[in-house]
Amino acid sequence: MSAEHPAPESYSYLGPAGTFTEAALKQVEGAAGKPWRSVNNVGEALADVLEGRSAAAMIAIENSVDGGVTATQDALATLPGLRIVGEYLVPVRFVLVARRGTRLADVRVVNAHPVAYGQSRRWMDSALPSHGHIPATSNVAAAASLLLNEHADAAIAPPGIVDHYDLEVLAEDIGDNPNAVTRFVLVSRSTALPAPTGADKTSIIVELPSDRPGTLLEMLEQFSTRGVNMSLIQSRPIGDALGRYRFVIDLDGHVLEERVADALLGLRRFSPKVLFLGSYARADGAPVGIDPQYGDDNFVEARDWLRDLVSGATAD
């Protein structure tokens, strides 16, 4: 089937081939052997899902160096009917590539995506102190441009780019942070909840009910009083007025766990808008630590105790 009319079971990702997003999609077992649709931006990837061109889309949502990907967060907040069904981690590594025959000493101008350039700046300033920078629309586009024009002598690109383009690697591991990693999420229209694994994450987006002192604290108390840890919280402007913000939040735990469910109930009573984006297994598989007082049994026992009080049954 052609790229213009992909099969319904196809998967969309930020392309072209060789991107970190493609590397994330390669981790999805269900995507193996299915058609993959290369798109230009997050909006196009999510539109593919909403309009039925793809079953799911892989998109970047967080980077350990730069934080949340705001384009993704804003899109998920404003496009209804989407759920996160999985997360995947990709180490961020960069290489410097050039046309064959180019030496490092020949490099004067470098083509690079602004994020990649910012994460490789210390190496660039040390190895090429007099270099110039031409911004690129993507990491792969930076490398591909070397074969199309003479404006740049080299490009910052992902490892493995030479598998797709006839280029030469001048330097490896040029990123400033060897521990950098990007978190990707697989998004679909499925509302089916996977069973809790004990190593799960729940993503939500919340709007505050009003702009008054203590409102943010009231929101945070919905989690702290139930022993629910937040692994990410980031504010984004709603856009309808100054001072109006929504919060993108990742919670440690699954919505089918009593403490998480109870926190969401409290949040729903407090906030005019709570958007549930999904509960899914953590990519790192790390078990979520739970204080015994916030275990499921304690919530069930507390409800049973209250029911006995209301019904008039004898209770200790």
From TrEMBL:
Say which enzyme class the record assigns: lyase
Keyword Lyase assigned to the entry: answer is yes
CDD domains found in the cross-reference section: ACT_CM-PDT, PBP2_Aa-PDT_like
Q: Which residues form the ACT domain?
A: 204-279
Task: Tell whether DNA damage is among the UniProt keywords.
Answer: no
Marked site, Essential for prephenate dehydratase activity, at: T182
Q: Name one GO cellular component term.
A: cytoplasm
Q: In which pathway does it act?
A: Amino-acid biosynthesis; L-phenylalanine biosynthesis; phenylpyruvate from prephenate: step 1/1
The GO molecular function terms of this record are: prephenate dehydratase activity
Task: Identify the keywords attached in UniProt to this record, alphabetized.
Answer: Amino-acid biosynthesis, Aromatic amino acid biosynthesis, Lyase, Phenylalanine biosynthesis
E.C. no: 4.2.1.51
Which residue intervals define the domain Prephenate dehydratase in the entry? 10-189
What InterPro entries does this protein's entry cite?
ACT-like_dom_sf (IPR045865), ACT_dom (IPR002912), Chor_mutase/pphenate_deHydtase (IPR008242), Preph_deHydtase (IPR001086), Preph_deHydtase_CS (IPR018528)
Name it. Prephenate dehydratase
- Per the UniProt entry, what species is this protein from, by scientific name? Arenivirga flava
